[in-house]
Amino acid sequence: MKKKTRVAAAGTAKRPKTAPAGPKAAPRGIRKSASPSPAPSVDPKSTIRRLKTQLARARARIEELQASADTDFLLDIPNRRGFERELHRAIAFIKRYHASGALIVLDVDRLKPINDAFGHAAGDEVLKAIVKTLLAHVRASDVIGRLGGDEFALLLWNLSETDARAKAALLEGTIDRLTFVFGGSTVTAGASAGVAILGPHAELGRALEEADSAMYIRKAQRRHEA
């Protein structure tokens, strides 16, 4: 009797096996993500048009930056870099087609005393007036550049040596007659010009040196005359 009682007690101590858990319910407020929609088709023609537009804008910006790099910001004419580029092209044209031209280097006289007495703003006005005068005495095909400071260069097409020297003298005389009023005082500047002829054997560096040397000789002559 005692043995049966122990077996029955042990049987009552066992727990029934639990049923397998079902799928967990998703938390409230969270939805299952929908399957991704297919990517919209890209029109190749519209892509090409967009890329061409971007390329055109980039090229225009590059040209704008190159132009500003070759231009004197004060006088709106080519700076030394821009003028030498034009002179290089002109010499190549002259050699190929047996054309002719002249290079005039012109240095403004007495600009430093004007800057010292009346300020650089006064000197800038003198330079602007001189450039305006030069532009009025050259053709549209000619080129005027600022080499630096108070020194300018002119590229003149189809001029003989006699005509080039006459043009240089004309520019000197015209600039000599310019007058300016600063601080109640009337002042003049003046200019000295040197000439180099561009022919079939012209070279950029040598032409600039020749015209520059002729300009300094002319400046010394004008000082002696004064």
Short description:
The protein has 226 residues and is an alpha+beta fold. It contains seven helices and six strands, in the order αααβααββαβββα.
Protein model, in words:
There is one protein chain. Mean pLDDT is 86; it is low at 1-13. Strand 4 (180-182) and strand 5 (185-187) form a beta hairpin. The chain has a four-stranded antiparallel beta sheet with strand order 2-3-1-6, sandwiched between helices. It has helices at 2-13, 44-69, 80-97, 111-118, 120-136, 161-176, 204-225, and strands at 101-108, 143-148, 151-157, 180-182, 185-187, 191-198. It is built from seven helices and six strands. The relative contact order is 0.13. By secondary structure, the chain is of the alpha+beta class. 53% of the residues lie in helices and 15% in strands. The protein is flat and about 95 Å long.
Q: Give the DSSP E fraction (strand runs of 2 or more residues).
A: 15-25%
Based on secondary structure, the structural category is: alpha+beta
Mean pLDDT: 86
**Please, how many helices?**
7
Percent in helix: 40-55%
Q: Determine the N-to-C terminus distance.
A: 153 Å
Oligomer: single chain
Radius of gyration: 42 Å
Mind summarizing the main beta sheet?
4 strands, antiparallel
Residue stretches low in confidence (pLDDT < 50, at least 5 long) are 1-13
